[in-house]
Design a protein that fits this description.
Blueprint: H1 12-17, E1 28-35, E2 41-43, E3 51-54, H2 55-67, E4 72-78, H3 95-106, E5 111-116, E6 130-131, E7 134-135, H4 137-154, E8 158-161, H5 168-178, E9 187-192, H6 199-205, H7 225-236, E10 241-245, H8 251-258, E11 265-269, H9 271-282, H10 288-302, E12 306-309, H11 312-322
Parallel strand pairs: 1-3, 1-4, 1-12, 4-5, 5-8, 9-10, 10-11, 11-12
Antiparallel strand pairs: 2-3, 6-7
The protein binds ligand PBG.
Length: 323
């Protein structure tokens, strides 16, 4: 007898039947950037098809997204004025708070996740409050609590702290619990690397650090045991979902962590990963749809349950066309 593994590849039916991993809009999250003003839809040169929207324009965009069956969004706010403390981030009239309130008034079938960090809001562009030009970790925790609480009071459905501040999950869980917001989950950017793949995002949110870099709080790309350590700490502190970021150069980290935990694992397919594909596609060098789907599927295969990706809208458009 000949053993024929190709039998399971012979027709599209048997291939679909025996497929191990699938992409679904249930698992995809679409990031969105909001700015102050009216009637604003700014292109971002390094991220084709991604925009900065003012709230009025964002509402039109969200209408389109919900019609495409996109279920989850991740919001980033870009305030007009930045200061040392990033005060706009915890102001009840801050850009993100106003945005959440307006979305919630109109869309009840959309899950709103909000990024909790300071880099978009501080004049120095670092992810926390500084003392002598260094992040004061423990002082930052107090401000993170204010920021997270104000997001949830505005209507955020999930808090995603991304600053790699020690103790951030514990601090946020405790302030939410104290305010009886016991059912708001925390998705922690647990293993977030000091990556050059964030370059285009920093154009999008105007958050490049004004001096130094983020290597004192984000992880060294050379490390993988450290990612496991960070994830375990966050789970212990009460994270509901943990994340690896970036995604495509870190498939080994996703695989390793998935094997060790029993809660959902997210990954962030970041701006540079998106822009590289767009650039190659715009040159006609690759088939964008096929490469995109193969990359997203590779994240699933590695072990990600949830994928945050700028490709979500393109993917949704494609599957809606064939539905
Ligand atoms: C920090 C944050 C960053 C990203 C998401 N949240 C940037 C950073 O750490 O500099 C990067 C996302 C991307 O590159 O797409 N608030």
């Amino acid at each position: 007898m000949m053993i024929r593994p190709s039998r399971l590849r012979h027709t599209s039916h048997i291939r679909d039947l025996s497929k191990e991993n699938n992409l679904s809009l249930n698992d995809l999250v679409y990031p969105l950037f909001v700015v102050e003003g009216k009637n604003v839809k700014n292109t971002i040169e390094s991220m084709p098809n991604i925009y900065q929207f003012s709230i009025d324009k964002l509402l039109f965009e969200i209408d389109e997204l919900t019609k495409l069956n996109i279920k989850n969004i991740l919001l980033f706010g870009i305030p007009n004025t930045k200061d040392e403390l990033g005060s706009n981030s915890f102001d009840e009239n801050g850009i993100i708070q106003k945005t959440i309130i307006e979305i919630k008034k109109r869309f009840d079938n959309l899950f709103i996740m909000t990024d909790v960090c300071f880099c978009e809001y501080t004049s120095h562009g670092h992810c926390g409050i500084l003392k002598n030009n260094l992040i004061d970790n423990d002082l930052t925790l107090k401000y993170l609590q204010k920021q997270a609480l104000s997001h949830v009071e505005a209507g955020s459905d999930l808090i995603a702290p991304s600053g790699m501040i020690d103790g951030m999950v514990k601090a946020i869980r405790s302030i939410l619990d104290q305010n009886n917001l016991i059912n708001i989950p925390i998705m922690s950017y647990s293993a977030k690397y000091a990556s050059s793949f964030y370059g285009p995002f920093r154009d999008a949110v105007e958050s490049a650090p004004q001096f130094g870099d983020r290597k004192m709080y984000q992880m060294d790309p050379a490390n993988s045991n450290e990612a496991v350590k960070e994830v375990f700490i966050d789970i212990q502190e009460g994270a509901d979902i943990v994340m690896v970021k970036p995604a495509l150069s870190y498939l080994d980290i996703i695989f390793k962590i998935k094997d060790k935990i029993n809660i959902p694992l997210a990954c962030y397919n970041v701006s540079g990963e998106y822009s590289m594909v767009k650039a190659a596609a715009n040159n006609g060098w690759i088939n964008e749809d096929l490469v995109r789907d193969e990359l997203l599927l590779s994240l699933k295969r590695a072990g990600a349950d949830i994928i945050i990706s700028y490709f979500t809208k393109d993917y949704a458009k494609k599957i809606n066309k064939y539905d």
